Amino acid sequence: MIWYNPRRSKAEAGDGAAVGANSAIIAPIVNLFVGISLGANVVIANAVGRRDDEAVRKAVHTSVVISVLGGIFVGALGEIFAVPLLHLLNVPDDVFPLALVYLRFTISAIL
Question: Cβ distance 78 to 107 under 8 Å?
Fold first, then answer.
């Protein structure tokens, strides 16, 4: 739900614009990790259903390693390409610094 406040300052409006400017970058990253976790869930559930404890152990460890390495990889790429990605999305100059801080904060949370 979005509330309209006519007394909202320009800085507060920029905060919302900074978050919105990053949605095209953050959403695919989140969806990638959701897809990886769903795939791991299927493999682990299959092994649990077969009562194959060794396969469960391997699948869990593999999914954890893939998640950690993927987070580091995405975090590094996000830090390297944060500025060019925001320029590619034509983020306005007055919103750009806030959008960059938000993107870097969100990418660091993935790590």
Answer: yes
Say if CB 66 and CB 35 are below 8 A apart: no
- 14: helix, coil or strand? helix
Q: Which of 41, 33, 108 is nearest to 67 (CA)?
A: 33
pTM to 2 decimal places: 0.75
H/E run at residue 111: none
Helices 23-50 and 96-110 pack at an angle, to 10 degrees, of 10
Task: Please give the C-alpha separations between residue 52 and each of 13, 26, 47, 48, 102, in angstroms, as whole numbers.
Answer: 54, 36, 5, 6, 43
Look at residues 22, 15, 27, 14 and name the one whose alpha carbon lies nearest to residue 103.
Answer: 22
The tens digit of pLDDT for each residue in 14-63 reads 678 888 889 999 999 999 999 999 999 999 999 999 999 999 999 999 99
| 3-class secondary-structure state, position 93 | coil
Structure tokens of 83?
């500025």
